[in-house]
Amino acid sequence: MRFFVLGLTLIASLLVVRRASAHGRLIEPPSRASMWRYGFDTPHDYNDHECYCGGFTRQWQRNKGKCGICGDPWDSPTPRIHETGGKYGNAVIVRRYRTGSVIPVRVELTANHHGYFEFRTCAMTYRDQEVTQECLDQHLLSAENGSTRYYPGPGNRVFEGYYKLPEGLTCAQCVFQWRYIAGNNWGDCGNGTGAVGCGPQEEFRACADIVIGDNEATLPPRPSTSPTPTDRLPTDTSPLPKSGPNWLFNFIIAGTCLLVVLAAMALLYTYYYHAGRVKKWLMARRLLVQESPPVAPPRHKRQHHVSNTQLQL
């Protein structure tokens, strides 16, 4: 029983490792964590694709769903490393936009877990004082079709959308926020049913420092391209179905791990409970085929010859 529990624990650990492998980064405008990849002389964050609030368990069980505005764990020391005053929050302006303009936004996903993106911005009131999530929520950006959510298509690649900045918003430094709400966990939909994509999900966030002003130069017109499935953003917020290849891959991994664990358990069971019988069986066969013990050669009595002279004495 002990080995069976150990095997189940091993399988669960492998599945959890894969579950937590979703990754993504904001690359346009370059986030504080990723700007070093695009020519900015800032500290290198080699884990810039892992700003996921400390992970699903830490965010939802320990911090009750709370997260830093740039993806740091809520309970980490302040200033958090990706926020103003932290290691990567150095107030480096990466883009300058004109008020009310439509800007390109790009996100790179290296492990696509469905869900949707949202983008927000907020002006900093004081230098070296980070903005709040409440301020960011006041400026939820909309795409050209009016949708505030971007649903990425399948695959691991760069996703692009165009979003309109708020009219009348100007700032010497604004925080541009990306939020990625994944959709691969099963949860309660709130209507008595459960489905993949409902309930708490894994979440990613990132921040970029930008300038928005009336005197900033307008962006050049983007090249006209035929609309793609990812350009037509759905407005339906119903749970996303779980794709076939993902569950099939999970099933194959789980089956392989189960076979390996069962084989290991069989070997351990044989060793602990049948090793004595095997030893006795081997000893019996050895006794049957063992040759008769060697016989010592006959001993001959040594003859003593006594001379006549000695007998006379």
Descriptive notes:
The protein is α+β, with helices and mostly antiparallel strands. The chain has a domain at 22-221: Coagulation Factor XIII, Chain A, domain 1 (Distorted Sandwich). The protein is 26% helix and 21% strand. The chain is built from five helices and ten strands. The protein has helices at 2-19, 56-62, 133-137, 244-289, 308-312, and strands spanning 23-28, 95-98, 102-111, 116-123, 142-143, 158-164, 171-181, 186-188, 194-196, 203-213. The chain has a four-stranded antiparallel beta sheet, with no helix packed on it. The protein starts with a helix and ends with a helix. Mean pLDDT is 80; it is low at 1-6, 8-21 and 227-247. InterPro entries: Cellulose/chitin-bd_N (IPR004302). It holds the Pfam family LPMO_10. Residues 215-239, 293-313 are annotated as: Disordered. Residues 227-239 have a biased composition (Low complexity). The chain crosses the membrane at residues 247-273.
List the SSEs and their pairings:
Elements: H1 2-19, E1 23-28, H2 56-62, E2 95-98, E3 102-111, E4 116-123, H3 133-137, E5 142-143, E6 158-164, E7 171-181, E8 186-188, E9 194-196, E10 203-213, H4 244-289, H5 308-312
Parallel strand pairs: 2-10
Antiparallel strand pairs: 1-3, 3-6, 4-7, 5-6, 7-10, 8-9
Architecture per CATH nomenclature, i.e. the level-2 architecture of the domain at 22-221: Distorted Sandwich
Biggest beta sheet attributes: 4 strands, antiparallel
What is the global morphology?
elongated
**What is the CATH T-level topology of the domain at 22-221?**
Coagulation Factor XIII, Chain A, domain 1
Counting H and I runs of at least 4 residues, what is the number of helices?
A: 5
Strand arrangement, largest sheet?
1-3-6-5
Q: Summarize the helix and strand pattern as letters.
A: HEHEEEHEEEEEEHH
Number of strands: 10
Backbone structural class: alpha+beta
CATH homologous superfamily of the domain at 22-221 - what is it?
chitin-binding protein cbp21
Round the mean pLDDT to the nearest integer and report it.
80
Which blocks of ≥5 consecutive residues have pLDDT under 50? 1-6, 8-21, 227-247
| Level-1 CATH class name of the domain at 22-221 | Mainly Beta
How much helix, percentage-wise, in residues? 25-40%
Supply Rg: 36 Å
Spatial separation of the terminal alpha carbons: 92 Å
Biased composition (Low complexity): 227-239
Signal peptide: 1-22
InterPro entries: Cellulose/chitin-bd_N
Keywords: Membrane, Signal, Transmembrane, Transmembrane helix
